[in-house]
Amino acid sequence: MKEIEQLRLQAWLDEELSGSERREVGDWMATDAAAQALATELRATKSALKNNELGRPLPMSGDFYWSRIQLSIQHGVPAVARSSASWITWWYRLLVPVGAAAVLGLVLVPILRPPVAGTLASFSVETSMPDSNVIAFTSEDEGITVVWVDTQ
Amino acid sequence: MTNHRQAGGWGRLICGLFFCLSFLASREARAEEPLKFKAQLIWGTDTEKPVDSKEKIKDLDPKCKEMLGRLFKWKNYYQVDQDTVITVPHKGSKITCMSHDCVVEIFHQNDRNIEVHLYGEGKLYQKINKDLSKGKYLFVGGNIKKKDNEAWIVAISLVE
Prior knowledge:
Order of helices and strands of chain A: HHHHHHEEE
Strand order of the largest sheet of chain B: 2-3-1-9-8
Number of domains of chain B: 2
Oligomer: heterodimer
Shape of chain A: elongated
Order of helices and strands of chain B: HEEHEEEEEEE
Helix content of chain A: 55-70%
Structural class of chain A: alpha+beta
Number of strands of chain A: 3
Distance between the termini of chain B: 52 Å
Number of helices of chain B: 2
Radius of gyration of chain A: 43 Å
Structural class of chain B: alpha+beta
Strand content of chain B: over 45%
Number of domains of chain A: 3
Number of helices of chain A: 6
């Protein structure tokens, strides 16, 4: 028997087939001895599993137990693990952002520190020549500074 | 699974700290390297380049010539002698002769801040304190004595 036929037979036993397919498999079963034998075996297996499953008693009432699981799924944290690791988690949540902020400060403060007064974007000129005029200007856009000494 | 994630987070934090400290250490090391400046003595004039001259008169590089053309009135700008590279030690100074009359001394103050002392005929002429970063120019100039309509200009720029 082909695998697809075995699966169709299983689906027929599980009442998963539509009306027309169900009738088709039923007609096939009536004429095929191998199909009947397989159907008998599958029914026996299903019954054995259903009637002989070990009982699993819950520690609390079934509704309460399942509602706790549902809450844990919704909140995304295992309900059982939360109580034992809470203080570790709390420290982890505190120290990681503080550490990240400290690292960011270490990097940014030297880069962004304010300029020393009188140096950045400014300059000074001192002349030692008597009877001279000094004209000075700077253009940060052009990247030039000019100091002109007029002695005439 | 929670412990594994926490361990991974601490590991990433330590790696990040190590990387940042290495970056800062290398930055501080680079900050103490000597600075190299290029100094050019330039002659501004309306006359053409002399055929023979005791000092070497050369054409100026186009970028500098273009800047001077926008700043000053002269028709021509020539470089006197060759480029002078002045290596100034960190927080130190270096003196160099541009010509027999012109001496330049550069003091490194901090970061990119320098003080330029210009000497002419053996005397301190000008003191200029300026932040000079790469690609920027400092031009110091004046009229040449007894020569109408000609000028001397010292151009200083940071090379590295």
